[in-house]
Amino acid sequence: KFVTLFEIKKVKKRYLAWVEGTISDPKGRLKTSIGKDLPLGGRPRFKVTQNPSDPIAETFWEVIKNEKNKTLIALYPITGRTHQLRV
């Protein structure tokens, strides 16, 4: 049943993250290309790219609170690309 709800976009994901520094804007949207970084002899990693053929990752975010040079934010992925919140 959950699989169907995800497929028809009835489920909204919310992630919480502490980030370094103070974010002054109350909310925003990140939209960027994410591609693979293929180091010699290593496992592929993902990175932000300027390549128009790489898939776009889009995330809405909002600040929950600022505390001691850290910010607690809520992240709402719109696209669901591999590792988009980590990148």
Alpha plus pi helix count? 1
Radius of gyration: 15 Å
SSE order: HEEEEE
Low-confidence stretches: none
Number of E strands:
5
Query: How far is the first residue's CA from the last residue's CA?
Result: 30 Å
Shape: globular
Major sheet, described briefly?
Answer: 5 strands, antiparallel
> How much strand?
over 45%
Q: Kindly state the percentage of residues in helix.
A: under 10%
What does this structure look like?
By secondary structure, the protein is mainly β. It has one helix at 2-7, and strands at residues 15-20, 27-37, 45-49, 56-67, 70-77. Strands 1-5-4-2-3 form a 5-stranded antiparallel sheet, with no helix packed on it. It starts with a helix and ends in a 10-residue tail after the last strand.
Brief characterization of the structure:
This protein is mainly beta and 87 residues long. The chain is globular and about 40 Å long.
What key attributes describe this structure?
87 residues; mainly beta; 5-stranded antiparallel sheet; 5 strands
Topology:
Elements: H1 2-7, E1 15-20, E2 27-37, E3 45-49, E4 56-67, E5 70-77
Antiparallel strand pairs: 1-5, 2-3, 2-4, 4-5
